[in-house]
Each structure stands twice: as C-alpha cells, then as structure tokens.
Amino acid sequence: MESPREMPLWRRLLPLALLAAFLALGYAFGLQRLVSLDSFLDSRAMLRETVENHTALAAAGFVALYATLVAVSFPAASLVTVAGGFLFGWLLGGVLTVVGATIGATALFLAARYAVGDFLRRRTGGALKRFAEGFRDDAFAYLLVLRLTPALPFFAVNIAPAFFDISLTTYVAATFLGIIPGSLVYAFLGSGLDESLMRAADHGVGLSSLVTPEVTIALFGLAALGLAGLVLKKTVLRRRPGQTVVKAEGL
C-alpha cells in the first residue's frame, strides 16, 4: 500500500481541502446564522418538540451535526453543547456531545496526519522536537491533560497531536475521556436554560432571573475545570521522563 510520503502533495492535502471546502460551503449557505444563539432561542420550542417526538433520530442527527462542526472546525462547540443539554437533558446531551466531538476530532486528526504530519515530524527541531519526544513518551497523559485544559483552543488540541506521531487508539481514548467533564458541565448549563428564560419572561432580564441552581453549579464546574487545567498545565505538561522541564506554550 502506498504510504502518504510517497504520494503527490495534492493527494495528501485532499482530506484537509475537503474539510475546508465543507466549512466554506457552510458559511456560504448561512451556517453561521443557523448555528447561533439567536437562531437557537427562536427555534428552541420546535426543536424540543422534535426531540420529544423523534428522540432516537434527533440524537443521531445531533451527533452527526456535532461531528461535522468539529471536523470542519466551526466555532460553535460550546453553544451546541449547551443546546444539547437543553434538548436532551444534561446526561444524554453530554454523552451525545462526547460521542460527536470524538468522531469529529478524530476525522480532523486523521486528515491532518495524512496530509502534513510526517512532513512536519521530519523537519521538527530544537525545543519543539524535544517536546514531541516527550509527548510520545507519555502521549495519553499529555493529550488527556490538554483536553482537560479549557484555556487551550479545541481546534488546536484536535490537530496538534497529528504532528507528534500519536497512535489513533491513544488519540481516541484520551479525547473521549478528556472532553467528558467539560461536555457535561456545558450540557448541565443548558439543562437550566429553560428555567432562566421563563424567569426572565416573568420578571424581566436580570441577574436573579438568570442565576438558577443549574447555572450556578455549571459556573462552579467551569471554574473548577479552569483551575484544574491551569494546575495540570503547570505540572504535567512541563515534565517528561528523564528531563526536568518541557514547555507546552509553543503547541
């Protein structure tokens, strides 16, 4: 079987080009308006009715939509996760988000590794090369920590491991486990959205109408994830076997 490095450049870049083309088509057809907070708020009653009447089909459609948005790197992951919690409940919405995000991230990872991963690995030098070696020494732990660090862009964490020779199994497992906490927190935030909106309709938009128990718990969860990610970034990501420090900021 022909390896990627033996193929013409255009063939190696084709998967990434297709993802970019899907993203461009999405913008051309107004995806940014359809997947937006205003659009969701306007259609939330219809969406919830659809979910109640066709739960299995709606769940499959949600996973497919989420996977597609992640694969093409459309910047709406948090909003769609909140919508999932609102429509399916925090537990099922969180689970569907994790599944969809893992599928989409894996598709992007494979496209990037197929296109330019080998090329960049062979030309990596200096500190980045040492970091790549450290990443390979404990790839699962490194990627898991990256997934648990909300401060790092989701797109960057999806695509960066393709340049560090990580196995597909390790990538999928670390991605699946690492995005569970954040997905459940955002889905839980969405599960309290209806109550917040009803309070706002009855009493006007104010802090007291927006702060429900679900929102409060979700905000504490986000703060805890941010703190945990910061601690892990300052500790685990700076260590590698046999050396004292590896800086992750250049990832």
Provide an overview of this structure.
With 251 residues, the chain is mostly helical. It has one domain. It is built from 14 helices and no strands. α3 (37-53) packs antiparallel against α4 (55-71), α4 (55-71) runs antiparallel to α5 (77-88) and α7 crosses α8 (139-147). The longest helix has 33 residues, at 90-122. Residues 200-211 and 240-251 have low confidence and may be disordered.
| Secondary-structure-derived class | mainly alpha
Rg result: 20 Å
Largest sheet: none
Which regions have little confidence, pLDDT < 50, spanning 5+ residues?
Answer: 200-211, 240-251
Give the DSSP E fraction (strand runs of 2 or more residues).
Answer: under 5%
How many domains comprise the coordinates? 1
Helix and strand element order: HHHHHHHHHHHHHH
**What share of residues is helical?**
over 70%
Shape: globular
| Secondary structure tally, helices | 14
Number of strands: 0
Head-to-tail CA distance between termini: 32 Å
Mean pLDDT over all positions: 76
Secondary structure topology:
Elements: H1 9-28, H2 31-34, H3 37-53, H4 55-71, H5 77-88, H6 90-122, H7 126-137, H8 139-147, H9 154-159, H10 168-178, H11 180-191, H12 193-203, H13 207-210, H14 213-235
Helix pairs in contact: 1-6, 3-4, 3-5, 4-5, 4-6, 5-6, 5-11, 6-10, 6-11, 7-8, 8-10, 11-14
